[in-house]
Amino acid sequence: MRSRKILMISGFLVTWTYVIIYFMPKVNTELPLLRNRHEQAVQQLEDGVRQEYHKTDKLMINLLGILQAKYATEAPEKEIRIQALPQNSQTILSLQEPPAIGPDQELQQDVLETPNETQTSHRPQTEIPSTVATRLANNQPVIPVLVFACNRISISKCLDNLIKYRPSTEQFPIIVSQDCGDEATRNVILSYDQQVSLIEQPDQTDIFVPPKEKKFKGYYKIARHYGWALNNTFSKGYEFVIIVEDDLNVAPDFFEYFLGTHHLLKQDSSLWCVSAWNDNGKANLIDSTHPELLYRTDFFPGLGWMLTKELWQELSVKWPKSFWDDWIRHPEQRKNRVCIRPEISRTRTFGKVGVSNGLFFDKYLRYIKLSEEFVPFTKMNLSYLLKDNYDKTFLKEIYTYPVVTYDELRRNLITRDGPVRIQYNTREVYKRTTKMLGLMDDFKSGVPRTAYHGVVSFMHNKRRVYLAPNVNWKGYDLSWS
Ligand SMILES: *[C@@H]1O[C@H](CO)[C@@H](O)[C@H](O)[C@H]1NC(C)=O
Ligand SMILES: *[C@@H]1O[C@H](CO)[C@@H](O)[C@H](O)[C@H]1NC(C)=O
Ligand SMILES: *[C@@H]1O[C@H](CO)[C@@H](O)[C@H](O)[C@H]1NC(C)=O
């Protein structure tokens, strides 16, 4: 039998490498004098042997796979279902997948993934109907909310909340895009029946990750998922899409906010997104009496955001393989465009179960305040956010406010009322000052979080404070990180 021969050969190979690994250190200890001199050489040999062993191991697994496929016709244990979809004739491979990783990729440092060994078996997938309305009868755009899901059943908290505040099911269809094929999560999504539609990322093949970035594999999958889902959704003809992650709660006026701002994206080519998130949105840093306040920011905040079809057309053709949000913040993509962000966040993450950025959540994200009031954005004049108006008023004004030091601010030594300005000229001063004030202190592509022309706006003891570079600021320094 051929299979038996192959098994014997591979069995011999494995035994042989074990024997070598076993004897290596023995030889070594018998020659204590040579040990120092040859330590490195031996080490290298050992490493080599280990590598060979791993290779043999892999070969074995491959061989077994081949043999299984060839000979084991009765009742295969692990079944891979290939399911052809009638609508778009795409193929779904349902295999186990590692858990999802949070939306904010600056939390990426030490994310590890552990595959969940649950078997999945698919029932037919729901697709976005191929003919969808992209405009309402009154010519208002239909703006789908695209929710990214993987294997967190707590997505129900996110969906309940979206459905609760959704003013119109026609105008805001909720599309949940699921990667990973986790069955439990899938069932949760399907339990919403007509209220949400489910689409599933079909490419469940293993993704290529350079060896050095193995631990970031989750981010490669996220980028693949985003690329696919956005392509899929925009291909239906929508002009805007709102992106939400499965661990976000939204504010009562979440939809009103996007409804009131979407036209700005078309009006002002220097705007490329509307985000619901304030990175410095902790309760003590915001003005809770002004939930209607909005800003322009050079920093892409993500975490509940809207983009246009035109922007997606531009980005989709060069969409990255991983770390899409750092990529999008790079000058090559951003091209000096800015987002709108609120004074008080309209989204809040309710925690990332099973991911090692729990610490970051406990230390920071949980304190971000979610706006509670309903602001009628659609009835407001928001043209102050257009570049020409904003730069003439917001930026000009800031440089009329008196400059104070952090110390004066802290010790309440400022006698006059009204806003003040703290100046920074170097990265170090910026870092030190933000740390003392409890602001986010990091940069992406040289841009501080929430900054517009380098200016970061926040509250301190009921006073508006602008942390600002000096007036002849020349632009962001990519080396600030
Ligand atoms: C996999 O997920 C299921 C729930 O879907 C859970 O009960 C199980 O403990 C998980 N297994 C691992 C290894 O995480
Ligand atoms: C989206 O679709 C376009 C056109 O088919 C293609 O060129 C592009 O590579 C796709 N992008 C992604 C991220 O899948
Ligand atoms: C809206 O505000 C802008 C200034 O930001 C002003 O020029 C314009 O007249 C206002 N429009 C209306 C209809 O009030």
UniProtKB/TrEMBL annotation:
Cofactor binding description: The cofactor is mostly bound to the substrate.
A Pfam family the protein falls into: GNT-I
GO biological process: protein N-linked glycosylation
Stretches that traverse the bilayer: 7-25
Name of the protein described by the UniProt record: Alpha-1,3-mannosyl-glycoprotein 2-beta-N-acetylglucosaminyltransferase
Catalytic reactions of this protein: N(4)-(alpha-D-Man-(1->3)-[alpha-D-Man-(1->3)-[alpha-D-Man-(1->6)]-alpha-D-Man-(1->6)]-beta-D-Man-(1->4)-beta-D-GlcNAc-(1->4)-beta-D-GlcNAc)-L-asparaginyl-[protein] (N-glucan mannose isomer 5A1,2) + UDP-N-acetyl-alpha-D-glucosamine = N(4)-{beta-D-GlcNAc-(1->2)-alpha-D-Man-(1->3)-[alpha-D-Man-(1->3)-[alpha-D-Man-(1->6)]-alpha-D-Man-(1->6)]-beta-D-Man-(1->4)-beta-D-GlcNAc-(1->4)-beta-D-GlcNAc}-L-asparaginyl-[protein] + UDP + H(+)
Cited function: Initiates complex N-linked carbohydrate formation. Essential for the conversion of high-mannose to hybrid and complex N-glycans.
Cellular component GO terms held in the UniProt record: Golgi membrane; perinuclear region of cytoplasm
Signal peptide feature range: none
Similarity field: Belongs to the glycosyltransferase 13 family.
Subcellular location(s) of the protein: Cytoplasm, Perinuclear region; Golgi apparatus membrane
Organism annotation: Stomoxys calcitrans (Stable fly)
Pathway: Protein modification; protein glycosylation
Predominant cellular place of this UniProt entry's protein: cytoplasm
Record keywords, A-Z: Cytoplasm, Disulfide bond, Glycosyltransferase, Golgi apparatus, Manganese, Membrane, Metal-binding, Signal-anchor, Transferase, Transmembrane, Transmembrane helix
Gene assigned in the entry: 106095035
Enzyme Commission code(s) on record: 2.4.1.101
